Amino acid sequence: MENLALIDSFSEFKDDKQIDRVTLMAILEDVFRNALKKKYGSDDNFDIIVNPDKGDLEIWRNRVVVADGEVEDPNEEISLSEAQKIEPDFEIGEDVSEEVKLIDLGRRSILALRQNLISKIHEHDNTIIYKQFKDLEGEIYTAEVHHIRHRAVILLDDDGNEIILPKEKQIPSDFFRKGDNVRGIIESVDLKGNKPTIIMSRVAPVFLEKLFEQEIPEVFDGLITVKKVVRIPGEKAKVAVDSYDDRIDPVGACVGMKGSRIHGIVRELGNENIDVINYTSNLNLYITRALSPAKVTSIKIDEVKKRAEVILRPEEVSKAIGRGGHNIRLAGQLTGYEIDVLREGAEEDVELSEFSDEIEGWVIQEFHKIGLDTAKSILEHDINDLVKRTDLEEETIRDVINILKEEFEE
């Protein structure tokens, strides 16, 4: 029968999209009912019988027999003479069930039905994909580079699902070729026009956290907990770890002998420098550890303003600040405190903000970015070094130094 032939013609959807027969039949019934509404104005008096085992589908229209010439609604009523052509014994008031063939719907309706069926199957497929990846948000996923665009890399997984890795979600040193396998976390999944948009990220802190779970057995087993991760992607990261078992050294377990365990993670992140520190609820100790590899002399904490004033020996200051100010910035993010670095013997130093009437605010901010918050912290640096580390012109830096020198010469 024609209905069966139509169902069989869509078997590729069941195979390619892994739609079970029952679901396919439900979609078929829905599509046929829409076609019936358009053809007859209503589908209320139609029975659609599906047989998932045989892949069979039948459509029956139910009408009431009325006297000849008294048919008001040809969809719900049939004249006695027409009913008796189907079966001679029909009488007025009886119900007539008549099978509807596909050809009765008309060629145009059949073409529209086919298109609607394809659309419904794709919509079902997209819903399944959306739910599948929504459950994977925040988890590591691997896919293959299919196409490289200016603003994004398009990936395909083993099932042919498209995943987008935008430029801003890539580590700066990332370089991909077609066919490369790429790991990242599924950051977001949205439905746009019934099509799921899946975004991958390699710069999110949770990607590093999930790499720890994947690469370090004690983290995977829950013996070691990753308390917090902060990153400057491709440059530096700090990871605070803890263990409820005193017999386990969480830092040692994560790093491994000569860095053997963490080496794979560092390589995955484009040689991102990863500091692993022991988490502690002792705030002084936590800030001290966060500033590693610098050795802190003393700390003064203002818990209300969430600021920490850290005293270090002069030779430790550059370690605390780090290249480009990365170390001190990440230490602040890890602990939740704004950290001010002071040198030993710099009690007579002056905060840079005190010169705001002579030095423009944006210039002061440039020095803050590299951890230089006081007059002496700037005066102790070579001008060429300051030019390299900031976005300031040499002339601007010389003007600032002259202003600061006047302060101490008075």
From TrEMBL:
GO terms for biological process: DNA-templated transcription termination; transcription antitermination. Residues 285-345 form the NusA-like second KH domain. One of its GO terms (cellular component) is cytosol. The keyword RNA-binding applies. Its main location: cytoplasm. The keyword Repeat does not apply. Keywords: Cytoplasm, RNA-binding, Transcription, Transcription antitermination, Transcription regulation, Transcription termination. It comes from the Bacteria. It holds the Pfam family KH_NusA_1st. It is found in: Cytoplasm. Residues 6-125 form the Transcription factor NusA N-terminal domain. PROSITE patterns: KH_TYPE_1. Belongs to the NusA family. Monomer. Binds directly to the core enzyme of the DNA-dependent RNA polymerase and to nascent RNA. Participates in both transcription termination and antitermination. PANTHER family: TRANSCRIPTION TERMINATION FACTOR NUSA, TRANSCRIPTION TERMINATION_ANTITERMINATION PROTEIN NUSA. This is Transcription termination/antitermination protein NusA. It comes from Aequorivita antarctica.
